[in-house]
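Closing statement on the tryptophanyl-5'AMP sub-project.
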Amino acid sequence: MTRIFSGVKPTGHLTLGNYLGAVRRWAEDDQYRAEALFCVVDLHALTMEHDPARVRRLSRQAATLLLAAGLDPERCTVFVQSHVDEHARLSYLMECTATDGEMRRMIQYKEKSAQAKASGDGVRLSLLTYPALMAADILAYSADEVPVGEDQTQHVELTRDLAVRFNQRYGHTFVVPKATEPVVAARVMDLQDPTSKMGKSHASGAGIVYLLDEPGVVHKKVMRAVTDSGREVVHDRAASPGVANLLEVLGACTGQEPGALAGTYTSYGVLKKDAADAVVELLRPVQERHAALVADPGHVEEVLRRGAGRARAMARPTVDAAYRAVGLLEP
Ligand code: TYM
């Protein structure tokens, strides 16, 4: 059976980008057709300046939102990364497989290290080695597929390279995974700056729709989205990035093709209104289930506890095999 692994990092409130690029597919498709694991990757939240209380809060909220989005713990495994030691154990072997040059080439490292320097913080070593931990997350579970948004495909490519290299050097140990992207909305852009990704850790939230934003707030943010100076509604990411983004969001929400949708609009205003309505309707059931789950925190904790137990049992044999393969003595 196909094995799927993916994760979300608790560095901010989950966004519409996270939902359309990744989480919605996990809930609507992946968990039904494969043996799937979905993880709140909290160790990854420590690679930049962080507030411990906030990471704790956001981890709990992310797990609750994954369940609210429809992940069914009877069908898939939902857990928190730091509850399963195998991730950190295997990460070290990945650091021994990857090269310094490979890590420095990662776009996310370049962007985030520049950000850390600009705000006067040192660049944490873990920011550089982040892709080794991400590779460990995936390889520990012998995942075949990794459903992610476009921004994470470079990391999955690196994971493939590391798996192949490790297998060649030490004998077949890891499944070589591949990234899967959504057909539409693989890269949802910031509504205020449609040339950059809608990211949960941006300082200003004006261009970011959060999953827990109230309908009025969603409306305001979408209606104020930056569009282009032209008047024609076309789906052209290079020439009209703001309009293209709205068309993709609307298309992803309603299951229509953005190019075809463009032909049905003659004004930006109507497009914005329809996109805002569609996002509100998309988020409504998630928000309702979230409210119910928040009222029962014991349930979420129990799901995570059971999930970690299952995940540990799955990861352990592969990580042990990798330890033996590189020459470490059996304890
Ligand atoms: P993270 O937490 O930044 O994002 C979680 C998922 O959401 C996708 N995503 C987007 N998709 C479309 N448009 C956007 N604007 C947008 N923003 C985010 C991301 O591509 C991702 O699929 N390194 C990962 C977390 C991770 C992981 C893993 C993922 C750690 N280990 C192993 C898969 C497998 C990250 O920072 O995702």
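The first strand starts at residue 3 and ends at 8. With this model delivered, the sub-project is considered complete and its resources will be redirected to Aim 3.
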